[in-house]
Amino acid sequence: MPYFMKTHSFKNHSYTDLFFDLDRTLWDFERNSRETFMELYHKYQLNQHFGSFDLFFSTYREYNDELWMLYRSGQITKGELSWKRFDLSLKDIDVNDEKLAKNLSKDYLEISPTKRKLFPHTLLSLTFLKKQYRLNLITNGFKEVQYQKLKNCGIIDFFDHIFISDEIGYLKPHPKFFEHALKVSGADPKNSIVIGDDLMVDIKGAAEADMDSIWINHKRMDLNELDLDFVPTHEVSSLKKLIHIL
Ligand SMILES: [Mg+2]
Q: Which residues contact 155 (CB under 8 A, 6 or more apart)?
């Protein structure tokens, strides 16, 4: 589908509710997670097993992505996802140590939400938008992790409603996730807009829920190179630009 970036302003649209994603949209997942993994690498002296930090981190990320897909489609549980991504990373380099995998998993879930790196202009944008809109958060993740992240990085009070897949029982882009968020917040989909980084999760979910969307394209990917049957309503490469649109 051809995609033409819209440059017009939404300012005459009567949005009332914004639905923000958290990870990789506001909370800098890559940088926070890298810092966490560096701590784990040193604490457990993983250099004994992995030749380098980068090998450890990239191996984990591959298994994490695979297992998250299985978790999203209901094929594995939250518990399995948590420790098996470490277990498989260790098995990849012929280390069979379930106890180590479980310790890494426990520490990761404790340390990661203490990290506080947000994308540039997060606070500025949320402060500005809060004056005009109801702000809601929609995130796929574990409740004990996501609430801690929001508290620790000081953005929890911006949101009127916080929707976490773990609590709802459905993950984005499942229509039931969006149905629940709209129902509880009392928002009309026609006056709501989803703001997120993940095309297959946030933007697809919004399209299927008949909501407008803003794709946060921090990585500056080219939408024309992707073969999608839906498009975001708008695209920005920096959070700062939200305040020019909304
Ligand atoms: Mg995200």
A: 26, 118, 122, 123, 126
Ligand 1: distance of its center to the CA of 171 in Å?
A: 12
Print the domain residue range for 62: 30-114
Average pLDDT, the chain: 94
- What lies within 8 Å, CB to CB, of 61 at 6+ separation is none
Q: What is the pTM of this model?
A: 0.91
CATH number of residue 81's parent domain: 1.10.150.240
Give the environment of ion ligand 1: residues with CB less than 5 A. 21, 23-25, 197-198
Distance 97 CA to ligand 1 centre (A): 31
In angstroms, what is the span from residue 186 Cα to ligand 1's centroid? 23
